[in-house]
Automatic annotation (TrEMBL):
Record InterPro entries: rRNA_Ade_Mease_Trfase_CS, SAM-dependent_MTases_sf, TRM61_C, tRNA_MeTrfase_Gcd14
GO cellular component, one term: tRNA (m1A) methyltransferase complex
Domain of life per record: Archaea
Residues in tRNA (adenine(58)-N(1))-methyltransferase catalytic subunit TRM61 C-terminal domain copies: 73-222
Any Pfam family hit: GCD14
A Gene Ontology molecular function term of the record: tRNA (adenine(58)-N1)-methyltransferase activity
Keyword line: Methyltransferase, S-adenosyl-L-methionine, Transferase, tRNA processing
Protein name (Swiss-Prot/TrEMBL): Methyltransferase type 12
Native species: Halorubrum aidingense JCM 13560
Length: 247
């Protein structure tokens, strides 16, 4: 991976900083050495000690620059678990957004090509890949994947995994067998059930196997002296995930 940013932690304070950066806080000025490493301790000019931590996946979700609602960690976990993405895999992605999914995949060792139609969003995603330390594994392209399908289908090396978080996902799914290796995986994320159904129908018509759909709901637990129960804060729906395997 390329050089990544680090977390500087003191109690409940967390700052995302890069080697060589200087940052002022009410606890003093932090000066980050160029050779900083996880586990180091850095004192502000006022003597407050901060611990240096290497970034983990949840830190990326909490601290990367956002351009909208990013994919939640539980959704990312399902994508990685159901597709088995690992080192050396080639992943094609559309709907980069903030780049949370691409960053996770890159940190797992996959080589990711991801498309984002909004140039400003794409620029933010590129900066986020630098921060996450995966700019050498994740290529953020500005453009619409649906307009690049012919060129990509002619590529001599197909992809192992295709991940989609776009409104036109069903149209891309129809062409997906041309993009994937035999036995490769498709993952489609949608916040709406209508788009999910269209993706499922397109996957079936394209000959995909094992087409499954999951709604991702997560509830936190509350613990008190009175007892333990699921939180009443909400059911925690984020979206639907469709998984399928290329013929």
């Amino acid at each position: 991976m390329t050089d990544a940013a680090y977390l500087l932690v003191h109690g409940d304070r967390e700052y995302l900083l890069e080697p060589g950066e200087e940052f002022g806080t009410d606890l003093g000025v932090l000066e980050i050495p160029d050779d900083v490493a996880g586990g180091d301790e850095i004192e502000t000019h006022l003597g407050t000690v901060f611990e240096v931590r290497e970034l983990r996946g949840p830190d990326l979700f909490n601290h990367l620059e956002r351009t909208g609602a990013p994919m939640m960690p539980r959704d990312v976990g399902l994508v990685m678990g159901h597709t088995g993405v690992s080192g050396g895999d080639r992943v094609l992605d559309a709907g980069t957004g903030t780049g949370i999914l691409s960053a996770y995949l890159g940190r797992a060792g996959a080589e990711v090509t991801t498309y984002e139609v909004d140039p400003e969003f794409a620029d933010v995603a590129r900066r986020n890949m630098e921060t996450a330390g995966v700019a050498d594994r994740v290529e953020v392209r500005t453009g619409d994947l649906s307009e690049e399908l012919d060129a990509l289908a002619d590529d001599a090396e197909p992809f192992d995994v295709l991940t989609l978080d776009t409104g036109d996902a069903p149209d891309i799914v129809a062409r997906a067998p041309e993009l994937l290796v035999s036995g490769g995986y498709l993952a489609v994320y949608s916040p709406f059930v209508e788009g999910t159904r269209e993706a499922v129908m397109a996957a079936r018509e394209a000959g995909f196997e094992g087409v499954d759909t999951f709604e991702t709901i997560q509830r936190e637990m509350d613990y008190s002296d009175r007892g333990s129960r699921p939180s009443t804060a909400g059911v925690g729906h984020t979206g639907y995930l469709v998984f399928a395997r290329a013929p």
